[in-house]
Amino acid sequence: MAVLRWDGAAWQSAGGPVDPDGGGSYAPALGLGADGEMVVAFDALDATNQAVLRVRALHDAVWQTLADLSVESRGVRLA
Question: What stretches of 2-79 show up as alpha helix (H) in DSSP?
């Protein structure tokens, strides 16, 4: 999954791949953090094909992980 930003003339990549694991990304939600930086949350599969809810923020043009919530340990149900 990638996030693009309009610079007034063309769409530009915002920080490269959001989910570099490449296990699949589903149902993304994009918002802004208190500092104005982009935050994205999405359903994904981890390295063992277990469902996780990932939350990442764009900081200095690099996506940083804020949370990887396991379905099993947190009681989160991903549909």
Answer: 71-74
Q: Are 53 and 69 in contact (CB under 8 A)?
A: yes
Q: How does pLDDT run across 12-39, given as a tens digit for each residue?
A: 998 888 887 766 777 889 999 898 899 9
SS3 63: strand
Instruction: Give the strands of the sheet with 38-45, arranged side by side.
Output: 25-32, 38-45, 51-59, 62-70
Task: Say what the pTM is.
Answer: 0.77
Residues facing residue 41 across a β-bridge: 29, 55
Beta bridge partners of 42: 54
Q: What is the DSSP letter of 20?
A: T
Taking the alpha carbons of 22, 25, 31, 34 in that order, is the dihedral positive or negative? negative
